[in-house]
Specification:
- The chain is α+β, with helices and mostly antiparallel strands.
- Helices cover 44% and strands 20% of the residues.
- It folds into 2 domains: 57 residues, no CATH class; 148 residues, no CATH class.
- The chain is built from 7 helices and 8 strands, in the order H-H-E-H-H-E-H-E-E-E-E-H-E-E-H.
- Strands 1, 2, 3, 4, 5, 6, 7 and 8 form an 8-stranded mixed sheet that branches.
Length: 216
């Protein structure tokens, strides 16, 4: 019986692990900025390419600087003026936190393959004291907090953004991540199955003790 329970545990863990791995790391061959540079249909694009073909689009972006410079202009935060698109909820969250309000755009590839620049905001008091604000006015301490709790993006969205998402203008690495992370159920599964193993082993021991008493 115990061997059967252990086998069940092993199979369950093997089934859970692939799902956890895929949720943590996007495909390694994703090049969102390359796709952006070639696309002539990006929602909310700050470098519009109306009437251009892919080659003209690339030439136009090349005239603006190196790929890294263009990417930085795309993703780096800028101070949020009257026309930055911040709604009343964002403004209120910024006032509640204090400091200066910035707009930060992130590049999103949705599940259907479409590209979009999504507006996020940063309220910063100092280099080490800042929060991220979504369009609904909800605040986040860092990228992990945003991925775990936002209702703006989904687990199927791929997002290009600064890893230090509250940095101004955008210090640190630029990374590709999933727009939302799901709850890591692996520790709960392992813990629950371990309990099952212990209870099953205890049941076997009790049955053997009863059998010995009966035979004696």
């Amino acid at each position: 019986m115990v061997r059967g329970v252990l086998a069940t545990v092993a199979v369950a863990i093997l089934l859970v692990l692939p799902g956890c791995a895929s949720a943590a790391e996007p495909p390694s061959d994703v090049d969102l900025f390359g796709e952006y540079a070639r696309s002539t249909n990006v929602k909310n694009d700050v470098f519009p390419s109306d009437g251009m073909g892919p080659e003209d689009r690339l030439a136009n972006l090349a005239s603006l600087g190196t790929p890294e410079q263009v990417r930085n202009r795309l993703l780096f935060a800028n101070e949020c003026g009257e026309d930055c698109g911040a709604g009343s909820a964002v403004r209120a969250a910024g006032r509640d936190f204090g400091g200066t309000l910035y707009i930060r755009r992130v590049l999103v590839k949705h599940a259907d393959g479409s590209l979009e620049l999504v507006r996020l905001y940063v309220a910063q008091k100092s280099e080490k004291d800042a929060v991220l604000i979504d369009p609904q006015g909800k605040t986040y301490q860092d990228l992990a907090d945003f991925q775990a709790n936002n209702e703006v993006l989904t687990a199927e969205d791929l997002v290009l953004l600064p890893e230090n998402i509250t940095s101004v203008p955008g210090e640190g690495r630029v990374v590709t991540v999933y727009g939302h992370t799901t709850t890591d159920w692996l520790p709960w599964v392992i813990g629950g199955l371990a309990v099952v193993v212990v209870l099953g082993a205890g049941l076997v021991v009790r049955r053997r003790i009863r059998a010995r008493r009966t035979s004696g």
